[in-house]
Amino acid sequence: MVRTSCLFLASALAVGLAAQAPMGRGVHPADLDPATAPCQDFFQYANGGWLKAHPIPADRATWGGFNEVEERNSALLKEILEEAAASQAPAGSVPRQVGDFYRAGMDVKGLAKAGLAPLRPLLARVEAVKDARGLAQELARLRVLGLGAGFRFNVVVDDRDSGAYAAELAQGGLGLPDRDDYLLDTDRARDLRASYRTYLAGLLELAGEKPALARAHAAMALEVEARLAQASMTRVELRNPQALYNRRTLAELKALAPAFDWEAYFREAGLAAPATLLVRQPRFLEALSALGRDLPAAQWRAYLKVRVLDGAAPCLDEAFERLHFAFHSTTVRGIRDMSPRWKRVLRAEDQALGDSLGRMYVARAFPARARTRMAALITNLRGALRARIQALAWMSPATREAAVKKLDALTVKIGHPDVWRDDSALKIEATGYFGNVTRAAAFAFRADLAKLGRPVDRTEWSMTAPTVNAYYEPTRNEIVFPAGILQPPFFDPEADDAVNYGAIGMVIGHELTHGFDDEGCQYDAQGNLRDWWTEADKRAYAARTDLVVRQYDALEALPGLPLNGRLTLGENIADLGGLKIAYAAFQASLAGHPRPAPIDGFTAEQRFFLGYAQCWHFHAREAAARVLAATDPHSPAKARVNGPLSNLPEFFEAFGCREEGPMHRPESARPTLW
User: Fold this and answer.
1) DSSP secondary-structure letter at 81?
2) Measuring CA to CA, how many Å separate 509 from each of 338, 484, 518, 573?
3) Which H or E run contains 42?
4) d(CA 158, CA 485)
5) Which of 143, 245, 527, 628 is the most exposed place for a label (fewest CB within 10 A)?
């Protein structure tokens, strides 16, 4: 369960540097709020005009630069999908698969006519569960179809042997956003649980149960999830990779969780007697085993049934989809309106056929020159980080040498995979949306199982090419920039260097720094979870990260809702380090050249910081902000701007911020990490 550290949680599809993308602009004066002083609240100063002019659309929980990119992208991707759906491409070809998936998803009449029919075989199997073996078999069948329940079972890179794959068992099986939603005794948590219970009962009624029975079964299912939540690690606990590395043989797994029929589970999943597994949370599997022993089969059937219905609802008729939306989107995140159907199908298709759709997208939207420009920027940023590491006074020479070795070994991927996944054997039909979605999930799962025993494929990507995001993968020691992020406001071919270094330069620096954040620093140059720090350096690093935690603990997501500095620590380290690295690289790029003239009244240094801040124009509905504060390892946009900048003397100098101002931290309160 290695955490891939990405730039932004809510990844969106995005078009690259195509003709459809807007012309570059650099800093946009209309986005500023001249009524706010930059040294008072730089986020509001840089973005206040944009926030006022761009309210959150009714079909969104949040709105910002990432979402704007998604909207610009939607027209192109819709065009690709509609052309593919109308084509007469050969069966099994990429355009035919992409088009047939889209046609099936858009077939509203066919979905209405089918009703619950696509689920009846699954529900019949659930109703047949009578004992421990039947429960294990059904959990495995649902996992294969992508309808996860009980726990997670995946194939991952082995944290301590990064050249090999491993089977992983991890906590899961919950329907609410966070385990604390089941456990907290607050008005909001109790109301959310009541709404969830009503939603589950509604699903069961749509599936044919009488109201009283549906309510009883919903309560039974909710109790199972609450018991699983009690045994689950918190999100902060999940940030400790050492605690999550627990290798067990099958015999040891059986001893740990003896009431669960593991052999039946693995056999049904298609994995014959794994020699060893990574058990991420042993206590969770102990609890799952005990629940399997202690709870009646009828209660497990109720749980399995709601997991099937909840997972399948977006692929069924309008009644199921609207009920799913009303709870998960409106109740949980505050979204008022459902997005157009074609956008919902597009999101599902990116998940099911991401490489196939990505190939068509890249052919139309991503020029080769974008890779060249990004590669040059990454080289500059890498050099800046190398120089900073070599100059760190708080780190011993031995650890500095190992850190530089790790940086030099890091792999860079830009735009799209060099090797696309071959989905030609996947059966996609022009009718039967749910069948396409589950067959795609099963195809991907079986492909993952086939990796066991093989060397790790270093060409694989964890994001699709159209995604507007970026990530660092610790077990591969790589940074990855999908084509989607290489456009304004992140990468602007029409902007001056100052803005691009503040925007995409910071994105690059952010991902580079993830290799050395509080989780990434535990992996070595080859991507192995291994201690390569001296004890003194570990203590010095911990003291500095504690300072970062205290800073962000003092900030709020909403009035009265403080941030969790431990949950967001890795991303906050990456934001602070990324900004410092980007600024150092920008200053190095000016050496030997005439000083840039001011543009729109702003110096180059001021435009660097404005370019950074305007990447983060973003706001969220209150309900969504609460969910993000509890679950997102990233700080809110305002904290991502003002937090790092309040630690940078270069920012104080650029805007003339006095020591007593809110954007100015005293030197003793500024963490020095990377």
Assistant:
1) H
2) 36, 18, 16, 11
3) helix 42-53
4) 29
5) 245
Is 268 a catalytic site residue? no
d(CA 28, CA 535): 48
Quote the mean pLDDT of the chain.
94
Whether residue 70 lies in the annotated active site: no
Element (H, E) at 663: none
Residue type, 638: K
Active-site annotation holder among 317, 478, 575, 632: 575
The position carrying tokens 């006095």 is 658
Q: Which of 674, 632, 669 is nearest to 62 (CA)?
A: 632
Residues 122-315, CATH architecture: Orthogonal Bundle (1.10)
CB 246 within 8 A of CB 121: no
Mean pLDDT of 309-328: 98
Can you tell me which residue has the tokens 């650029």? 654
pLDDT of residue 365: 87
Across 376-384, average pLDDT: 96
Question: Strand, coil or helix: what is 449?
Answer: helix
One-letter identity of residue 38:
P
In this predicted model, what pLDDT tens digit does every residue of 642-652 receive, in sequence order?
999 999 999 99
Helix 341-352 with 354-365: angle, nearest 10 deg: 110
Strands 276-279 and 161-171: what pairing? parallel
pLDDT tens per residue across span 322-343:
999 999 999 999 999 999 999 9
Decide: 250 and 285 in contact? Cβ < 8 Å.
Answer: no
DSSP label at residue 415: E
Exactly one of 168, 181, 511, 524 is catalytic; name it. Answer: 511
Residue with tokens 């093989």: 454
Domain range annotation of the chain: 5-14+29-78+352-669, 122-315
What CATH homologous superfamily does 5-14+29-78+352-669 map to? Collagenase (Catalytic Domain) (3.40.390.10)
CB 66 within 8 A of CB 81: no
Lowest mean pLDDT among 39-43, 288-292, 660-664: 660-664
Cβ–Cβ under 8 Å, residues 285 and 311: no
- CA 113 – CA 131 distance, rounded (Å): 35
**CA angle 327-566-194, nearest 5°?**
20
